[in-house]
Structures are given as structure tokens and as C-alpha cells.
UniProtKB/TrEMBL annotation:
Keywords: Cell shape, Cell wall biogenesis/degradation, Isomerase, Peptidoglycan synthesis. InterPro entries: Asp/Glu/hydantoin_racemase, Asp/Glu_race. The gene is murI. The keyword Cell membrane does not apply. Coiled coil: none annotated. GO terms for molecular function: glutamate racemase activity. SUPFAM superfamilies: Aspartate/glutamate racemase. The lineage of its organism: Bacteria, Pseudomonadati, Pseudomonadota, Gammaproteobacteria, Pasteurellales. This is Glutamate racemase. GO terms for biological process: cell wall organization; peptidoglycan biosynthetic process; regulation of cell shape. PANTHER family: GLUTAMATE RACEMASE. Pfam families: Asp_Glu_race.
Length: 179
């Protein structure tokens, strides 16, 4: 994607290090997309920062769909969510989960319902915002948008009125396509 756009692209990296530090049981989970849980850099993060922990990995595209339905104002299907998280429901000492996808903090409360043993959720949002602010400062880019909060998508969603209404509930005032 970085090759296709002239603007900086900020990605997310699973918060393995802080998860390993905060976990009391040293049994943590990485909840991410199927691709992310298999990436070599994730193996490196686990080796470097969590070699003293048991790290469970659960890759899911279904959770992305569930989160996107919630963004659109639809209710979360707790049965589907519980089914997707079923490999972890019986792991009693799993106390910390890295939310390794930007979608997953949107359904954190529902994940907590399905996995009540989990006490800590590592949300990538603050680190992403910090990195974005660093890049904006470094590149001396001032945000001059006419709307306060806006969603930019790589596919054309500008005329999706249902999504616009749902995003308004989250404080967003517009959708623009990057194409």
C-alpha cells in the first residue's frame, strides 16, 4: 500500500512487550488477522520481549467482519464471537490479550464478555496516534480539514449512508475515498 500512495501509511504492531510486562500469569494472547499472527516480525517480537511467556495466537477474519458490522450500527453477534474465541475460553490463566488489529478495540467489551478471565487488553490506538503525531510533526503537516473527524477509505464508501449514520455515532463527520 505504501507504494500506491504518496502519504505516510501508519500500521499497527501487536503490543507484545507491554503485554508480557503487565501479565501476572505470563500467559498472553495475540488476537489479530490470520496474516499477522503468522508474520516473521511477530515471531521476532515474541522471541525478544515475551520468551518468558506462553503466547497464544488466534488469527481471525471473522472478528474483522464482526467489528465492521458494529461500525455500521449493527448489533454484535455474541454467539458468532464466542465461537470464534472458543479456542481461548477454557484457558483460565490467559490474563492479557494484545488486540493486534485496529478493528478489535471496537469490540473489546464484547470480547471481555466472552473471555471473562482476561484482565488486560493491549489496545494499539495510543501507539498509532503517537506515531501519527510524530510523522505529522516531522513532515510539518498541519491538518486543515473542514470536518473535525473524517474517515478515509481505500474503497469508495462515500455514498454509503448507513455507514455514514453509524460513524456519526462514533463522532465522525464524513467519509472520503483515497482512490
Amino acid at each position: 500500500m505504501r507504494e500506491q500512495f504518496s502519504i505516510p501509511i501508519v500500521g499497527t504492531v501487536p503490543a507484545i512487550k507491554p503485554a508480557a510486562e503487565i501479565s501476572q500469569t505470563k500467559h498472553i494472547g495475540l488476537l489479530a488477522t490470520k496474516g499477522t499472527v503468522k508474520r516473521p516480525y511477530v515471531n521476532d517480537l515474541i522471541h525478544q520481549f515475551a520468551s518468558h511467556c506462553v503466547v497464544e495466537r488466534l488469527g481471525s477474519t471473522k472478528l474483522v467482519e464482526i467489528a465492521e458490522h458494529k461500525i455500521q450500527g449493527k448489533s454484535v453477534d455474541l454467539i458468532a464471537l464466542k465461537n470464534e474465541l472458543s479456542p481461548w475460553t477454557s484457558i483460565e490463566n490467559l490474563d492479557t490479550i494484545c488486540l493486534g488489529c485496529t478493528h478489535f478495540p471496537l469490540i473489546k467489551d464484547e470480547i471481555q464478555i466472552c473471555l471473562p478471565q482476561v484482565k488486560n487488553f493491549m489496545d494499539p490506538g495510543a501507539a498509532i496516534a503517537k506515531r501519527l503525531q510524530f510523522l505529522l510533526d516531522k513532515l510539518d503537516i498541519a491538518l486543515k480539514l473542514e470536518v473535525k473527524n473524517q474517515v478515509f477509505c481505500t474503497q469508495d464508501l462515500e455514498n454509503n449512508h448507513q455507514l455514514e449514520r453509524a460513524l456519526a455515532l462514533w463522532g465522525f463527520e464524513g467519509i472520503s475515498s483515497l482512490k
